[in-house]
Design brief:
CATH topology of the largest domain: Jelly Rolls
Radius of gyration: 27 Å
Largest sheet: 5 strands, antiparallel
Helix content: 10-25%
CATH superfamily of the largest domain: Galactose-binding domain-like
Structural class: alpha+beta
Number of strands: 10
Number of helices: 2
Order of helices and strands: HHEEEEEEEEEE
Shape: globular
Length: 217
């Protein structure tokens, strides 16, 4: 609706009346414009899924999974190839494959923990399963000796597909808490993924005793 001619007509009225009605017309023009904008299409919603908090612990729940915690699923991380941003060298090379070797012992000195340097741009670790799977949950096992597990806090976990797009992402332990020895992240239905990533939000050492990625058999 074009109110410009109306505003011009009010300009020809006596000043006190013309200004008053011109102001009213201007407000109407603004309201009409806002009404037209209200019918605009909403911004697209991100397709990234949101994590389901573990019962009783939110996004930083300490667990000690029992022998049946796999729920009949297969750990497809064991089929993959692990990599990390850097490698710690204390008595041996704490290589990324130590987090997918099936040994969940969190004692670094038993040669069972993948360990990076304190990378300034956020130390990371990932496992590429080689192909996409329908994923159900991820179980992360922390370092447990000497209190060093406190380093694993405020970090991101995300899942990417074969084409590199993200199908799931969440931030874990953002408030400075840590977990021990393990934490389960249940994934929403429909999450497909080939690569699972873990990355610190800040400068510190990333230490992972084991990362298990479960999919239906």
């Amino acid at each position: 609706m074009n109110l410009t001619p109306i505003l011009h007509s009010y300009a020809r009225l006596p000043k006190s009346i013309g200004l008053r009605w011109a102001g009213v017309a201007a407000k109407v023009l603004v309201l009409v414009g806002l009404g037209a904008c209200s019918h605009a299409s909403p911004a697209p919603v991100s397709a990234v899924a949101v994590a389901s908090p573990a019962p009783g612990g939110g996004q930083c729940a300490s667990e000690s999974p029992t022998a049946s915690y796999s729920d009949g699923l297969q750990n497809v991380a064991r089929l993959g190839t692990a990599s990390q941003s850097s490698t710690g060298h204390w008595s041996w090379d704490a290589t990324p494959d130590l987090a997918i070797d099936g040994n969940k012992d969190g004692d670094y000195w038993k040669h069972s923990v993948a360990h990076t340097q304190a990378d300034a741009d956020g130390a990371w670790w990932q496992v590429d399963m080689g192909k996409e799977y329908p994923l159900s949950k991820v179980v992360i096992w922390n370092r447990t000796d000497g209190g060093w597990g406190a380093r694993l806090t405020n970090f991101r976990l995300w899942v990417s597909k074969a084409d590199g797009s993200t199908s799931f992402e969440t931030v874990l332990c953002p408030d400075g808490r840590a977990f021990s020895p393990a934490m389960t992240i249940k994934l929403p239905p429909g999450v497909q993924g080939q690569v699972v990533h873990v990355r610190l939000n800040g400068t510190n050492y990333l230490q992972l005793a084991e990362v298990e990625v479960f999919a239906p058999r």
